[in-house]
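WARN no homologs supplied; continuing
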Amino acid sequence: MAMELQEAFIVAASCIGFISVCKAFINVVRWVWVMFLRPPKNLKDYGSWGIVTGSAQGIGKVLAIELASKGLNLVLLDKNRSALEATCNEILEQFGGKVEIKSMIIDLAKLSGEEIANAIEEEIKELDVGVLINNAGMAYPYARFFHEVDLELMENIIKLNLVAATWVTKAVLPGMLKKKKGAILNISSISAYLPSNPLYTLYSTTKAYISVFSRCISLEYKQKGIDIQCQTPLCVATRMTKHLNGPSWLMASPEKFCKASVRWIGYEPMCNPYWWHSVQWFIFRVATPDVLLNAISYWICIRISKKGQMKEAQIKKMHQQESSL
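OK structure emitted
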């Protein structure tokens, strides 16, 4: 009897081990497929125009270029007139007469939600908008405790990261519903999924809203032909992240991230599209306990805060010296 139980235990353990190995193998094969081999969707099937917010520089600019390379006409939104004009000219030079571009000089952090929606609706009322990318966002100039965030910065982060994306989406959805097709991409951040992101509280909170907002409306509109997705990148080498001073090998270039980003549009509602970010996140979440992640995050952010304060003090000192001359 004891021998039979022992044999049964060995067989059961072997089966469980075999199933676990098979499951891991299938997950690896699927990861390779979606990251490198799965064909991207034809974005022109959604419509002939794409909208990108915060498109004058950084990720938004490169996303706009990627959409243009797919043959989409563009509506580009940004508050920086000169930078947006430069981006429009660069795209037109690169793609010649293949795409049309409309630019909107609009400060999404200064307008009410209703004003944002009205402006977007007026601009796109005659356009076949198939793709919307809510990219515009902002963070602190450097890490800081919540009580150190001044009121203007707090207001701008909430309005740009949270309110603007909500109202731009609301303005674009009716046209997509009318033709029963469309794709919406909301750019969030992996900071929304960390156990905590100290000294970047407001930024992480607004990005968590974008993630939940995306998951909810993805279910609401999937059966109506609209694919809604939220992407959660790790660090991308842009002006927003230049103060982090992290190892360059941890960051993705905007070009590499955006190429991966556009390949994923229309697929899973939540994703981390760049393969190296995906590997980093697996290591963080599977191999690193929350307690350790919290301790590392706090230590890094405190260092960033101190460096930012020192740099800010130096700039103020230089300005005082200049004004006294």
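Residues 234 and 277 are 6 Å apart (CA to CA).
OK
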